[in-house]
Write a structure and sequence with these properties.
269 residues; alpha/beta; Spore Coat Polysaccharide Biosynthesis Protein SpsA, Chain A; Nucleotide-diphossugar_trans; Glycosyltransferase family 2 protein; transferase
């Protein structure tokens, strides 16, 4: 039976922390430990932790150097086969979702499900890759959502802890190295696992973009990076063209005409 380490980090978000804790401690799956890493909150978060301390395996409240430093503290204390990072404000969507995720799952480095978030006043289910092995190109353009992923604890021994020099993309950096470059096996489960609180630092798009560029230049060979940058530019052009339905319709028809001419030439040879 897989042992899971659920790690929650928090800083001055007592209301979100309570919601997160309550979603964890009601799980029907029992073979997990729960770790709460608080960054020295002064808003009543520590009092919330005390309310549930008999349900929490390990907790600490002290100043830290940022999100990934707090996560690394949790990893160093984790005893499970897999780690799940469920930050305060995010919560598990039903009492049986952990059990559903881990029931009969094949051995893999990363197991991941779906996240749910609110967009323009309605709840949207977001799925990633849906069952196929994730490639380097996938991770160049996107990521695996952190809270809906179970990451094998041994990966942190193999590839290192989270890069504390980054503020919001260090989890993506780990995926890029472990899965994109080293082909660690991933398993997808079509289960709505986590509700994501979109009000955190990860919503900072400019910071996300600048940190991704930094990581790509650190991690990818120059020749691969050039190819992928060219692919990304071409992809953006196509997406913009598709927004203009008149131009896109014209392009498609030109393509069909060229295809028919080439096919006719082949037949006449």
């Amino acid at each position: 039976m897989i042992k899971l380490s659920i790690i929650t980090i928090n800083l001055n978000n007592s209301e979100g922390l309570r919601r997160t804790i309550e979603s964890v401690i009601c799980q029907t799956y029992t073979n997990f430990e729960y770790l709460v890493i608080d960054g020295g909150s002064t808003d009543g978060s520590v009092e919330v932790i005390h309310e549930y301390k008999d349900k929490i395996t390990y907790w600490i409240s002290e100043p830290d150097r940022g999100i990934y430093h707090a996560m690394n503290k949790g990893i160093l204390q984790a005893k499970g086969d897999y780690c799940q990072f469920l930050n305060s404000g995010d919560y598990l969507l039903a009492p049986n979702v952990t059990e559903q995720m881990l029931y009969g799952v094949p051995d893999s480095s990363i197991i991941y499900g779906n996240k749910v978030r609110e967009i323009a006043g309605r709840r949207v289910v977001e799925k990633s890759y849906e069952g196929r092995q994730i490639t380097l190109l996938d991770l160049y353009t996107s990521t695996i959502f952190h809270a809906s992923a179970y990451i094998k604890r041994i990966l942190f021994d193999k590839y290192g802890l989270y890069d504390e020099g980054l503020k919001i993309v260090s989890d993506w950096k780990l995926y890029l190295i472990a899965v994109g470059l080293n082909n660690e096996k991933t398993v997808y489960r079509d289960i709505d696992l986590v509700y994501f609180d979109a009000n955190g630092i990860s919503a900072n798009k400019e910071l996300d973009k600048s940190e991704r560029e930094k990581v790509l230049h650190q991690v990818l060979p120059h020749s691969i990076l050039l190819d992928y940058q060219e692919f990304a530019v071409e992809g953006r052009i196509v997406r913009r063209l598709r927004k203009n339905k008149v131009i896109w319709f014209f392009i498609l028809n030109i393509y069909r005409i060229i295809f028919r001419i080439d096919k006719l030439k082949a037949i006449m040879k």
